[in-house]
Amino acid sequence: MREPLRDRERLEHIIAAIDRIVRYTSGKSYNDLVSDDMMYYAVVKNIEIIGEAANMLTQEFQQSHPDTPWKMVKGMRNYIVHEYFQIDDIVVWDVIENNLPELREQVTRYLSETDWSKWKNPKE
């Protein structure tokens, strides 16, 4: 059973992984990404971490925050882990450029707007 208590920690993991990706790719281009194996795999690993952290969020939390496409975030992780031999570099770059900024904004908002004292005991 997933613990509501840990939802906050999982959201913080998502922010940390996004921040690492931003740090690795800041000022870089798509060509820089695909020509640097170390950067590429560091980015892919952090996308995997984002998906795993999202997967570990309670269903209650995911359902109470439907603006985030949790299924897609988790699906990207599954794709990376299970289809690692056919990851599309263009999709990875698109996620970096177009999806992570919005996801970071949403998760930051959830962290600040959630009343964690009530969330830890949602049945009270």
Fold topology:
Blueprint: H1 7-25, H2 30-35, H3 37-55, H4 59-64, H5 70-82, H6 89-113, H7 116-119
Tell me about this structure.
By secondary structure, the protein is mainly alpha-helical. It has one domain. Helix content is 74%, strand content 0%. The protein has seven helices and no strands. The chain has helices at 7-25, 30-35, 37-55, 59-64, 70-82, 89-113, 116-119.
Features:
single chain; 124 residues; mainly alpha; elongated
Strand segment count: 0
Radius of gyration: 15 Å
Average pLDDT works out at 90
Assembly state here?
Answer: single chain
Please give the domain count: 1
Question: Strand content of the residues, in percent?
Answer: under 5%
Give the terminus-to-terminus CA distance: 18 Å
Helix content: over 70%
Number of helices: 7
Sheet with the most strands? none
Q: Regions with pLDDT < 50 over 5+ consecutive residues?
A: none
Class from helix and strand fractions: mainly alpha
What is the H/E string? Answer: HHHHHHH
Question: What overall geometry do the principal axes of the alpha carbons give?
Answer: elongated
Give a nutshell description of this structure.
The protein is an all-alpha fold and 124 residues long. The protein is built from seven helices and no strands. It has helices at 7-25, 30-35, 37-55, 59-64, 70-82, 89-113, 116-119.
